[in-house]
Amino acid sequence: MTELNIKMTKEIELLRLVTVGSVDDGKSTLIGRLLVDTKGAFEDQLLAVRKKKGQEQHIASASEIDLAMLTDGLSAEREQGITIDVAYRYFATPKRKFIMADCPGHEQYTRNMVTGASTASAAIILIDARNGVMPQTKRHTHILGLLGIPHLIVAVNKMDLVGFDQATFEKIREDMSAYCAKQGIKDLICLPMSALDGDMVAVRGDNMGWYEGETLLETLENLSVLDAVDQKPFRFPVQLVNRPQTADLPDYRGFMGTIVSGTVRVGDEVVAVPSGNTSTVKEIVTFDGNLEEAFAPQSVTLTLNDEIDVSRGDMLTHVGEKAKDSKELRANVCWIGNEPLSERKKYLLKHNTNTVKAMVTQIDFKTDIHTLEHEEDAAELAMNEIGRISFKLLKPLHYDTYAENRATGSFILIDTFTNNTVGAGMIV
C-alpha cells in the first residue's frame, strides 16, 4: 500500500458532522447524549452539568445530567436555554472518530449554521415529532442541499412525547422525502429516536420495535465518507510567498498554502494563474521534511525550478487542468447580512486566498424555501433568503463550479463599509 493510500485510509476514520433543525428540536441534547453514551465527556464536565447537586462525587446515571448544557457553553445560552453560537464537540467509537457541530435553530442565527455546515461530510436534521417539518427545517435542508453535503440523516426526535407512534414518524418521513426529492437530494436516511431517553441513539431501546433500521450511532459509523478530493484537478491557492533571505538560502522562494484538491509530485509541470507562466515543481517542503508527493488537504511550501511571477491570491494548477477564468459569474447565494442585497450594490468577494471587487448585476431569482419554486422578479434578498445572483468582477476570477469542486467553487461576500461577512456563495 502506498503512502497516499495509507493516508487516505486514516482520513476515512474521521467524520465531520453538523446537526441542524428548528428551535427546541433537541440538537444540544442529542450531542450531549452521544457524548455520554460514547464516553466522550469527562467526569468533571458531567458533574458540572448534573441536575441535582448533592454530596455524591460521581454521576450514577445519564438521567442526572442536563445533556444540553454539555454543548451550550455561553452564559446567554444557559440563561435562555437556546443555542446561539456553533459548538464543536469531539467523540469516538472503536470504528470512527467524529467532529460534530451543534448549530443554532433560530432563524436569526442561520449565518452560524452556514458556517458550521460548510465543512461537514454528513448532516443530522432534527425534527420534533410533535411539530413535524417546520419552515426553519426546510431552510436548513435547502442550504445543506446547496452546500452539497453528501449524506443527510433526518432524525425524528422526541418520539417519547407522541407515544412512540409509528404513523407520526412515517408522515414526517414522507414529507421530508418529498421535499428533498424536489431538490435532487438522493442520500436521505430517516430514523426515529428519543435523545433524552437514548432510544435509537446509541442503543435501540424497547419502545420502537417497529423500526428495523440501524441506530443513529450505527448509521454514523457505517457512512461512506471517502472524499475523492485528492482525485480532483490540482488546486493550490497561494497564501504567502516565503523569502527568508538568509546566507544559506540567498535565492530561496517558496510558495506557501494548502492544497485544496488534487495531488502534486516533484517534477510536475504547473501553471500559475492569472499570469499563465509555467514551471516544474522542484521541492515540496513541510515542517517534517521534504516530500515526493503531497495531496489535499495538506499544507505545504512549493518551490519551482523557474522564477515566475506568483503572488498571494494566485493559484497553481497542473498544465492542461486550468480552472475557469471569467470576470462574470453566477452563484447561489445565502444572504446573511442585516442590509438586503440588491442590484448594483458592490461587495468584496473572497475566494480562497484571493479577494476581488464585485458588483451585483442581476438577481436572477429568489427561492421559496417552502415550495422550492423560483421568484423571477425579486428586487432584493433579505437576511436568510436564498437566490441565484449574477456578478461582474473588477478582475478575472479563476474558479471551478461548486458541483465540480467545493473548495474552489465557494466564496464569501464582504461588506465594503463594515467589513462584515454578508453572504455565502456557491458558483454555478
UniProtKB/TrEMBL annotation:
State the InterPro entries in the record: CysN_GTP-bd, CysN_II, CysN_NoDQ_III, EFTu-like_2, G_TR_CS, GTP-eEF1A_C, P-loop_NTPase, SO4_adenylTrfase_lsu
Query: Which residues does the UniProt record annotate as the domain Tr-type G?
Result: 12-229
Q: Name one GO biological process term.
A: sulfur compound metabolic process
Q: Tell me the CDD domains matching this sequence.
A: CysN_ATPS, CysN_NodQ_II, CysN_NoDQ_III
> What Pfam families has UniProt attached to this entry?
GTP-eEF1A_C, GTP_EFTU, GTP_EFTU_D2
Which controlled-vocabulary keywords does the entry list? ATP-binding, GTP-binding, Nucleotide-binding, Nucleotidyltransferase, Transferase
For this UniProt entry, the molecular function terms from Gene Ontology, in alphabetical order, are: ATP binding; GTP binding; GTPase activity; sulfate adenylyltransferase (ATP) activity
Q: What is its EC number?
A: 2.7.7.4
Instruction: Enumerate the PROSITE patterns for this protein.
Output: G_TR_1, G_TR_2
The record's listing under Gene3D superfamilies reads:
P-loop containing nucleotide triphosphate hydrolases, Translation factors
Superkingdom classification of source: Bacteria
> Which NCBIfam families does this chain map to?
CysN
Q: What is this protein called?
A: sulfate adenylyltransferase
Q: Which organism is it from?
A: Mariprofundus ferrinatatus
